[in-house]
Amino acid sequence: MTTTEPQETPGRLTRTRKSRPVRVAEAIKDWVVEQGLQPGDRLPGEADLIARFGMSKGTIREAMRLLQAQGLVETKTGPGGGSFVGEVTKDRAHALLANYFYFRNITIDDIYELRVLLEPELAASLAGRLSAAQLDDLRGIMADYDRAAAGPEEERAQHIASLRFHAKLAAFGDNAILSFFISFMAQILSDLTVYNHLYAEPNHELWRRGRQHQLDLLDALDRGEAARARAVMASHMEMARSLMREQEAVVMKRFIAE
Amino acid sequence: MTTTEPQETPGRLTRTRKSRPVRVAEAIKDWVVEQGLQPGDRLPGEADLIARFGMSKGTIREAMRLLQAQGLVETKTGPGGGSFVGEVTKDRAHALLANYFYFRNITIDDIYELRVLLEPELAASLAGRLSAAQLDDLRGIMADYDRAAAGPEEERAQHIASLRFHAKLAAFGDNAILSFFISFMAQILSDLTVYNHLYAEPNHELWRRGRQHQLDLLDALDRGEAARARAVMASHMEMARSLMREQEAVVMKRFIAE
DNA sequence: TAAGATTTGTTCGTATGTATC
DNA sequence: GGATACATACGAACAAATCTT
């Protein structure tokens, strides 16, 4: 028995706890899984779904919005348009997860407690596994802060660029979960840097040491020295952590935009 | 100038790249942030929003669905009903994040690479900080697997209960990010255990050692011995990791339900 | 218990916008 | 530029849930 069209699971009868759009969204989601559909694959059009579910256009559209918000479907107008299976992007996952932490108290130090644990592990796993192009990519990011910041504004810009370095590094990793956790924290720190006033005063000595850390790291990665890459990253994170300790324990106060 | 009602940012003029519901949802989200609304706080009713935004009922409702899917609003019918700011629950955040990994290749070992790093740290941070009630809570969960499993089915049930132990431990931590990451991984492993057939064969020796680990852990936590708690958990994770290594590198193949 | 009030939930018909050919 | 195919948006009416009296 192969089901070839989305339908509600017959299990729940008339129990109308959930609204129709929610039930339709779940049915479509289940159907995508059962059919093994891949990103970009076509979903039935509005008219189709209206007929299949026997519900109105408004209800079907609300269901699609539920799926759209989760990043699971995308819709296009015009001929050849319609609904398609969508791959949840990293940015969207960041945003959705950031919402979870919005009402919770997250301190900078909470983030660094994790960075200290995770980033060295990522660095070690990358040793000897980066292509010349990838290493150049990282060096290119470092060019954005190859001189000491002149003032608070530039300091902030450099901090964000430095976080991009870590996000890029994460993208190169082959453990998708580890990579996501690291890039998520980099994203949060970047947002905090923009919206609050972290890094008010430039500190040339810290800048010099931080940059040297990253240069050493690239060297260790290039030579395939995992242990050294881990150690350098650990030092880098500990330094950053103690630096941030002096900052106020700022909490997240912002939804990240859609 | 205090804005007292949701409205679109005047910045973007007639640029209609995003659909109206999306724009309305963003406007409401921004408004919630600006007003500093808290979970449970009232949002304007449908009729209100229709008037304020000058859009149709359908458009407004689709916008609310976008927010509902993210867990940011909840709606109730009837007198006193309406839309309210909702706190994103842990379960919903789990599900939304699991969607991100659905099309990516996640191996069991990826998860254990992280558990080995994170769980010992959590254990150490909890030493001497758990109340008698919390310790009893953990012991209560352990009661669900106080005897060796007789068959594959019971083995699986015990594995899930054991994952509940770790999730509960995470809930007691005061680093919300660390706690979430750990509980998320426990949730994934639990789902995999249910929907795939992990843990086919009972292994009494492993069961005995795993249980002894947890007993030692509780003792260390009770006595406030952070270093020992960390070491015990590290052993526990390493053992579990090598056990799971023998399982096939199963990837996630399932959306988590709404 | 029953009736009424309030608010979201759902439907249907129609019209508009948008991208492709 | 016109025809086509699709989603997008509107408005009025009705249904359902839930609180109050």
Q: How much is the radius of gyration of chain A in Å?
A: 23 Å
Summarize the amount of helix of chain A as a percent range.
55-70%
Q: What is the CATH superfamily classification of the largest domain in chain A?
A: GntR ligand-binding domain-like
Largest sheet of chain A: 2 strands, antiparallel
Compressed to H and E, one letter per element, the order of chain A equals HHHEEHHHHHHH
How many alpha or pi helices of chain A? Answer: 10
Coarse structural class of chain A: mainly alpha
Count of distinct structural domains of chain A = 2
Percent of sequence in beta strands of chain A: under 5%
- The CATH architecture of the largest domain in chain A can be named as Up-down Bundle
Give the neighbour order of strands across the main sheet of chain A: 1-2
The quaternary structure here is homodimer
**Average predicted local confidence, pLDDT of chain A:** 85
Biggest chain pair contact, residues each? A-B, 57 and 56 residues
Secondary structure blueprint with pairings:
Two copies of one chain form a homodimer.
Chain A: H1 20-35, H2 46-53, H3 57-69, E1 73-76, E2 82-85, H4 90-102, H5 108-126, H6 132-142, H7 152-172, H8 176-195, H9 204-223, H10 226-245
Antiparallel strand pairs in A: 1-2
Helix pairs in contact in A: 1-3, 5-7, 5-8, 5-10, 6-7, 6-9, 7-8, 9-10
Chain A binds a DNA duplex (21 and 21 nucleotides) through helix 3.
Q: Describe it for me?
A:
Two copies of one chain form a homodimer. With 258 residues, chain A is mainly α. The first copy, chain A, contains ten helices and two strands. Chain A has two domains: 14-85, Arc Repressor Mutant, subunit A (Orthogonal Bundle); 91-257, GntR ligand-binding domain-like (Four Helix Bundle (Hemerythrin (Met), subunit A), Up-down Bundle), CATH 1.20.120.530. Helix content of chain A is 62%, strand content 3%. A two-stranded antiparallel ribbon of chain A has the order 1-2. Chain A is elongated, with a radius of gyration of 23 Å. The two termini of chain A are 40 Å apart. In chain A, 35% of the residues are buried. At the A-B interface, helix 1, helix 3, helix 4, helix 5 and helix 8 of A face helix 1, helix 3, helix 4, helix 5 and helix 8 of B. Chain A binds a DNA duplex (21 and 21 nucleotides) through residues 16, 19-21, 45-47, 55-59, 61-62, 75-83.
